[in-house]
Amino acid sequence: MTEIYLPKDGLAAMVEQFMARCRVFGPVFQGQYHEFTQLTRAQGLDLNYQNTRLSPKALFEPHSERMFEYSVAKDDPQADILREAPKDYSPRVIFGIRPCDAYALKLVDVNFDTPQFRDPWWVKRRETTTLVGVACNQPCATCFCTSVGTGPFDGTALDVLLIDMGEGFIAESCSAKGEELLAGLSGVEPAPAESGEKIAALKTAAEGSMGIQFRMEELAGKSSTELFNAPFWDEVQFSCINCGTCTFLCPTCWCFDVQDEVSGEQGCRLRIWDSCMYPLFTFHGSGHNPRNQKLQRVRQRFMHKLKYYVDKYANGVACVGCGRCVQFCPVNIDIRRVAGMMTASCVCPV
Amino acid sequence: MQNPYLPYPVRIDSIITETEDGNLKTFKLVFLNAEDEERFRYVPGQFAELSVAGQGEVPIGIASSPTEKGFVTFTVNKVGRVTSYLHNMKPGAIMGLRGPLGNWYPWDQLEGKNVVIIGGGFAFTTLRSSIVYMLEPANRGRFGDLTVVYGARTPNMLLYKDELAAWEQRDDIRMHITVDATSDPNWKYNVGFVPAITQQKAPGSENAYAIVCGPPIMIKFTLPVLTELGFPPERIITSLEMRMKCGIGMCGRCNIGAEYVCKDGPVFTLKQLSGLPNEY
Q: Helix crossing, B216-228 with B194-201: angle to 10°?
């Protein structure tokens, strides 16, 4: 593992070195909140945030993306034949991602990169991206990453982990990719000898601020059909307005729709984020809808994250504890409370 | 890396209107590139996404059998945007085909067993594929008795009428064709709903598997009949429909509990379904 020290006033210079080599994306304060975008200048990077409003998942699965293009011109011999839409897969660094958001990518990998099928866009973007994360010294009040198998200093899904030491950052490599990225840097100092203890203290404090809020281990042993039929869903769904905010903000929600769009003689097939909160998501052509009630849709979201995913992939829960859904739910539905209901539930005859 | 979302280009070779209401048409598709046909190796019970540029995709069961070479057929019910557009397309038009997708009927397990096929309405497509596959001389000996109960509302709502008539003449398949009602005085076959005909004809459950596909109401009333005949839930097989987009287990909408109908299905045994949430 490479460990280096970077004074804060050297941050922009470091980012510039990355920008000279590849595309660099990072949190930029735009309008009202921080958002991950491609940096045009190193000074645009702003690490002064807790969690970005939108997770950086869009850098891997864009909100809407051209999959294929085609011509529908009558006289075109290639008409109606789909071809891949060109995309930029040149190497890139995502700078300033939170450990939870990086961990989410690992959870979503099992959906897009499977033994049978590989989603080419997700897989290529994952391959050509180096993740430089920043540990959370001060998690939000809504954060609970420590309850779902990751943590504020978790580098397992990162290539490089930066730790804010006050005056500067310690950068630790967490993978061969990260090692390579740090090896090429100039103008850095070796990490001070006493930094290990200080990092441990910061980590303990950050983890301690969240504690363990529910025990996800309980979920694997529960019966899926019993949880499905549990009475508490009625209470959980009562206030939900099916707005879909939770699914759009969630770093592990990957569901998408596929649509064709034609303008003049040129068309494209798009994929667009979709949400299990919407009735159209499962609406059959026949008019039948297996999830036509709000309760069914709300239950689907929580069951998918906290039970179906657990059973299908044996990869923990599909939640990283970023707390965005808790923070921005307009009716204060709290996944921590739902998880508590699911882990504690006893389907006893009333 | 092969892109699993990219359809193979195909040409519509012919279109047959199957039913008197005009809502069911069979499309015979031919691959533009011979190597694509080689890649599209399917097994009866699988489905594919039919793609129309500018309209979208629809998941449809494969009606042809892999023993039929040089083309793939699909019988499509006119329902929504893509299927309505498809119904207006003409032979010679170019479209796309993506697949094969999903699992298939458990041919390994069916080997040496009697097979009872029960179908209703337009859900007879992958059953037709299965029958043609089993009747292929090289395959017929691998299976025991083959019994088919197939019903539609009226005689002219039955699919593949010429083939049904030909199968009626054979001695290696027992056909029980039925219609809900008919005013045709020359109708030679059964009149009655599929569950009732299944009960009357009482195919034996000994060493047998039942494959049931049809509208929900038919399935609902046929399952108790099969149970009464002694078919255990692990030997009752069905194929489910669900709204789909990707067809490869990624877009997230077709799940029943932890199972994606597109990738882990569409074929399930009644035993498997009884362990899943009742949400389909």
A: 20
Look at A259 and B4 and tell me if their CB atoms are within 8 Å: no
How far, CA to CA in Å, does B244 sit from each of A53, A273, B7, B56, B261? 30, 15, 15, 12, 9
**Could you tell me the pLDDT band of residue B202, with boundaries at 50, 70 and 90?**
confident
Interface test with A, best of B3, B52, B95 (most A CBs within 10 A): B3
For every residue of B14-74, DSSP letters joined together read EEEE-STTS-EEEEEEEESSHHHHHH----TT-EEEEEETTTEEEEEE--S-TTS-S-EEE
Residues in A touching B79 (Cβ below 8 Å): 285-286
Q: How far apart are CA B187 and CA B190, in angstroms?
A: 8
The beta-carbon neighbor of A120 closest among B3, B52, B94 is B3
| DSSP line for B183-232 | --TT--SEES-HHHHHHHH----TTEEEEEES-HHHHHHHHHHHHHTT--
Q: What Rg, from alpha-carbon coordinates, does chain A have?
A: 22
A119 touches chain B (CB under 8 A): yes
Q: In the structure, what pLDDT confidence band is assigned to residue A178 with cuts at 50, 70 and 90?
A: very high
Average of per-residue pLDDT across B34-50: 97
List alpha helices for A257-348, DSSP H: 294-303, 309-313, 324-328, 335-344
- The amino acid that residue A87 corresponds to is K
Give residues 278 to 297 of A whose Cβ lies within 8 Å of B. 281-286, 288, 290-291, 296
Q: In this model, does residue A349 exceed pLDDT 50? A: no
Residues A31, A42: Cα–Cα separation, whole Å: 18
Residue A348 is predicted with a pLDDT of 47
| Stretch B99-107: mean pLDDT | 98
CB contact under 8 A, A228 and B79: no
d(C-alpha A106, C-alpha A128), whole Å: 15
Nearest chain B CA: its distance from A166 CA (Å): 42
Taking only the tens place, the pLDDT of each residue in A193-210 is 888 999 999 999 999 999
| Gap between the Cα atoms of A108 and B250, Å rounded | 10
A255 CB neighbours in chain B (<8 A) are: 251-253
Chain A residues close to B248, C-beta within 8 Å: 116-117
Give the nearest partner residue to A258 out of B83, B216, B251, using CB atoms: B251
Question: Alpha helix locations (H) across B45-160?
Answer: 81-87, 107-110, 125-135, 137-140
Q: What is the ipTM for the molecules in this complex?
A: 0.93
The residue ranges of every structural domain in chain B are: 8-101, 107-239
Q: To the nearest whole angstrom, how far is the Cα of A72 from the nearest Cα of chain B?
A: 7
CATH class of B107-239: alpha beta
CATH architecture of B8-101: Beta Barrel (2.40)
**What residues of B are in contact with residue A274 (Cβ under 8 Å)?**
245, 251-253
Cα–Cα distance for residue pair A176/A124, rounded to 1 Å? 18
Q: Which one, of A145, A118, A110, A112, lies nearest residue A313 by Cα?
A: A110
